[in-house]
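Review form for a predicted model. The reviewer records the input and the model, then writes brief findings.
Reviewer: anonymous (R2)
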Amino acid sequence: MEITAAMVKELRTRTGAGMMECKKALKEAEGDMEGAIEAMRKAGLAKADKKSGRVAAEGVIVTRVAEDGRTGVMVEINSETDFVAKNEEFQQFAARVAERVLESNPADVAELSGLTVGGGDERDIATATKELVAKIGENLEVRRFERRESENGQVASYLHGNRIGVLVDYTGAEQVGKDVAMHVAANNPAATRADDIPQDELEKERQFLEEQARDSGKPEEIVKKMVEGRLRKHLSEITLLGQPFVKDPDQTVEEMLKANDADVSFFRRFEVGEGKEKKEENFADEVMAQAKGA
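Model under review:
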């Protein structure tokens, strides 16, 4: 059967694949459009499986807050390169995943992966991810999400570009929630208040400060006072309430909240790729390896 330009164009429109790949698939399927699409889909999923071991440490953070403001979600979806993170189809997929988290409240990423994409797309998210991998040519990963339902207040979100995201559960004026979320994005506190710091971490810091103070040669009672003072300073630097407020460093976040009759019960901050080892690529070596294999 003759493979016409119109047939190739239709297949390209429906699959997003290259012209030569579409022409080859149509020839192998003897002009059967649906057969060509299914063959390309299976080949693409096989290629996607091979890419699954590659490090994906770029990507986007997406946030969504329900209309009533009581529930907010934040999702990280990774790609291998920042270039793909800017791809419109990738970003649309990430946005849809975030909406599914908001709508369905999955327990974890495994449960999320089994949900349908929604919006008329009946594929599950795991399959849609694989097919997008095959189409884009990079490993992609729905890495993690946070979903917060406020019991007594509201949830605010903040995005710095699409690389840092924050959710804050707060009471008070809407602007306070936005300001606190922006502060968290900028200053990355370890916890809301000193009581939230694990005791083992406090003890390690205390021991470190004691060793430093004893090196000064001062009497033990002075050493104790030095340690307590330095520990208080350390806690103020790493806790949200103790930090100088980003929009007015002359007051702490706690003082700002009190002045606005507001409070914060929870925050979570995501940064793209944090905790992942990024593979160092050597472009010259990669080209050389390809040349040798040619």
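Findings: The two ends are 33 Å apart (CA to CA).
Further findings: Confidence is low (pLDDT under 50) at residues 45-52.
Recommendation: see findings above.
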